[in-house]
Design a protein that fits this description.
The chain has 207 residues and is an alpha/beta fold. It has six helices and six strands; from the N terminus they run H-E-H-E-E-H-E-E-H-H-H-E. It folds into two domains: 33 residues; 160 residues, Collagenase (Catalytic Domain) (3-Layer(aba) Sandwich). Strand 1, helix 2 and strand 2 form a beta-alpha-beta unit. Bound molecules: zinc ion.
Length: 207
């Protein structure tokens, strides 16, 4: 028998193994390519959360998860950073929070005018705690929704409250029932506007 004509039993096994391996590599490449192209089309935004109010870590972590989920549904990947962010969310120390507190029922605010969008928004922990107690909702859920709302003000045009969704000026208990976050999402129009925000960047690579 000449090598290369009829494979021996061991060679046949190796050929089969190579074929299986090749198939696996092809399949894996297909998955990676699909994921890469999704990532490549994705929009992202760097955000820093400054916890001057010293809210407990687990609440801040829970809140960040809520904010990320809301923005993921709007097609934006939030990247939480410690510095050099496009957007800063500040939880003021409690005493300052009382002083900054403008309308008595506001949980937060985002300074800005028709012509100028700011890059800093504030969320007041004492109000978040009151609202979460009133709604029997987790503090992290309410904090996350409040941050997502104020962040929305920084990305959307001035006075961007809407009749439905996350950008309603007032929420109710239904919004937080069983941690479902009911209607707290951006409308289709708002989602399109957010995609146009100059601080939202289109990812061109994966790091
Ligand atoms: Zn608002």
């Amino acid at each position: 028998m000449t090598a290369g004509t009829t494979p021996t039993g061991r060679e046949a096994e190796m050929v089969k193994a190579t074929q299986i391996l090749t198939a696996a590599v092809v399949a894996m490449t297909a998955v990676l390519t699909a994921e890469s192209s999704l990532e490549a089309q994705g929009l992202s935004l760097t955000v820093r959360l400054r916890n001057d109010a010293k809210a407990p870590d687990y609440i801040v972590r829970g809140a960040k998860r809520v904010v990320s989920q809301i923005y993921e549904r709007a097609g934006v990947n939030l990247i939480w950073v410690e510095g050099g962010a496009k957007i800063n969310i500040i939880l003021p120390v409690r005493d300052e929070g009382w002083k900054l507190h403008q309308p008595p029922n506001a949980m937060g605010f985002a300074p800005g005018t028709e012509n100028q969008r700011c890059t800093v928004a504030y969320v007041l922990m004492h109000r978040v705690e009151e609202v979460s107690a009133g709604y029997h909702a987790e503090i992290g859920e309410v904090l996350g929704a409040a941050i997502a709302h104020e962040l929305g003000h920084l990305l959307l045009p001035h006075n961007s409250h809407s009749q439905t969704g996350l950008m309603r000026p007032e929420w109710n208990q239904r919004d937080f029932r069983s941690g479902q976050r009911g209607d707290l999402v951006f409308t289709a129009d708002q989602t399109a506007q957010i995609h146009q925000s100059p601080v939202v960047i289109r990812q061109s690579f994966i790091d």
